Every structure is written in structure tokens, then in C-alpha cells.
From TrEMBL:
Cellular localisation: Cytoplasm
Gene3D superfamilies the UniProt entry points to: 3.40.50.880
The protein's role, per its UniProt record: IGPS catalyzes the conversion of PRFAR and glutamine to IGP, AICAR and glutamate. The HisH subunit catalyzes the hydrolysis of glutamine to glutamate and ammonia as part of the synthesis of IGP and AICAR. The resulting ammonia molecule is channeled to the active site of HisF.
Top-rank lineage group of the source organism: Bacteria
Annotated protein name in UniProt: Imidazole glycerol phosphate synthase subunit HisH
InterPro entries in alphabetical order: Class_I_gatase-like (IPR029062), GATASE (IPR017926), Imidazole-glycPsynth_HisH (IPR010139)
Functional pathway: Amino-acid biosynthesis; L-histidine biosynthesis; L-histidine from 5-phospho-alpha-D-ribose 1-diphosphate: step 5/9
Active site, UniProt feature: C90 (nucleophile), H194, E196
Length: 214
């Protein structure tokens, strides 16, 4: 972990399960000046924005996050209590669910009620994992935050978030059927795709996040 101070504005959470280098570089390219790659709950409590990446299985990511003493409490204090802008990426988005069903049932953070299920193969031609570029289409519930726009993004996942409340779904994509591409509520946004791999589209999303004041 880098030697950083409380003056850092964005906390990029390091819990051993994220594509940190690529996300860090994408945030810098989008205009972020102060980024703390951190596993320190004290720094998280001082952050003005929080980004939670995630690569791998739901259970491994959840266990990695919860194994850091005080981290979940610090995240909930800042995100749910202080309403600081939060962005979850891929499994970092999925962890907001009530539970995940990968390798057996595993609890999630339960910030947005729902569960993470394996993508169903309704057509033998549909491949799992869902990998590559695909459309992102806004829903009527995408809100007025303006972070997510219509376009194409890069996806890589075998499981998908199914929220209990459709009003939490901000965008959809299609891979043999509709899959949630983004969720949003108040100061929280999560994207199933990888903005750090989505070129201009992804950088636009990150720029919007850096300017977002919910």
C-alpha cells in the first residue's frame, strides 16, 4: 500500500480482489488528482468519494472485504451514513446485493436488496461468461444523476445482479435475455461492466462520477 494521507479525496478500496492498477489509471485519465489505493478504514472515513472494484467470485470478494477489520463499518458510515458518492465495479457492484449464489449462498452487504445469480443459458449459442462489448440501455429509473449514458461497454461476468426492486435498475444489457448493467440509488451507483476497459465510454462515466454531487 502506498504512503498516503487523509488529504486524499478518492478511496480506491484494496481488498485483494480488484483490478486496482487499471482502475487507478482510468481514474487518473478521467481527471482524478488524489487517489488513495487503501485498505485502511481510517482513510476511508475521510474519503470524499469511494470506488469498490472487484474481480473473481462473489464469495472470495466478500470474504476479502470483510476480513479487513473495520472496513465494512467504515464503508457503511461514509456511504450510507454520510452519503458520499460510491461507485461499485463488477463484483464490487454485486457485493451490494443481499446475497450471492456463486459456490453456495453467501451474504452480501445488503445495500440494495436482491441476489446475484448465474447467467442462464436459454440458447446454446449464448456463451457464459458474458464477455466482450455490449450495449448499455437506460431504464426509466436511471434517475437524474446523468452518470450513465447510452453506449457500449466491456463486460466480463458469469453471474448477474437481480435487484428485488426494479426502480434500483439504472441500465440493462442483452445477452440471451436482459441482464442488469447498472444499479443506482441516491448516492450509490454500481456497474456490471468495466469502465476501465471500456475506452471513451468508460472514461466518460468516471468523469461524471468525479463531478457527481448527489
Amino acid at each position: 500500500m502506498r504512503n498516503i494521507t487523509m488529504a486524499e479525496a478518492i478511496a480506491l478500496i484494496d481488498y485483494g480482489a480488484g483490478n486496482l492498477h487499471s482502475v487507478y489509471n482510468a481514474l487518473k485519465s478521467a481527471g482524478a488528482e488524489h487517489i488513495a489505493v487503501t485498505d485502511d478504514p481510517v482513510l476511508v472515513r475521510g474519503a470524499k468519494r469511494i470506488v469498490l472494484p472487484g474481480v473473481g467470485s462473489f464469495r472470495a470478494c466478500y470474504e476479502g472485504l470483510t476480513s479487513i477489520p473495520g472496513m465494512v463499518a467504515a464503508l457503511e458510515e461514509r456511504v450510507l451514513g454520510a452519503n458520499v458518492p460510491f461507485l461499485g465495479i463488477c463484483v464490487g457492484m454485486q457485493l451490494m446485493a443481499t446475497r450471492g449464489l456463486e459456490h453456495g449462498e453467501c451474504p452480501g452487504l445488503n445495500w440494495i436488496a436482491g441476489e446475484v445469480r448465474r447467467i442462464s443459458r436459454t440458447d446454446p449459442a449464448i456463451r457464459v461468461p458474458h464477455m466482450g462489448w455490449n450495449d448499455v440501455a437506460l431504464t426509466p429509473h436511471h434517475g437524474d444523476h446523468g452518470l450513465i449514458e447510452e453506449g457500449e461497454a466491456y463486460f466480463l461476468h458469469s453471474y448477474h445482479f437481480v435487484p428485488d426492486n426494479g426502480h434500483d435498475i439504472a441500465a440493462m444489457t442483452d445477452h440471451g435475455g436482459g441482464l442488469v448493467a447498472a444499479v443506482a440509488r441516491d448516492n450509490i451507483i454500481g456497474v456490471q461492466f468495466h469502465p476501465e476497459k471500456s475506452q471513451a465510454y468508460g472514461l466518460d462515466l468516471l468523469r461524471n462520477f468525479l463531478e457527481w454531487n448527489p
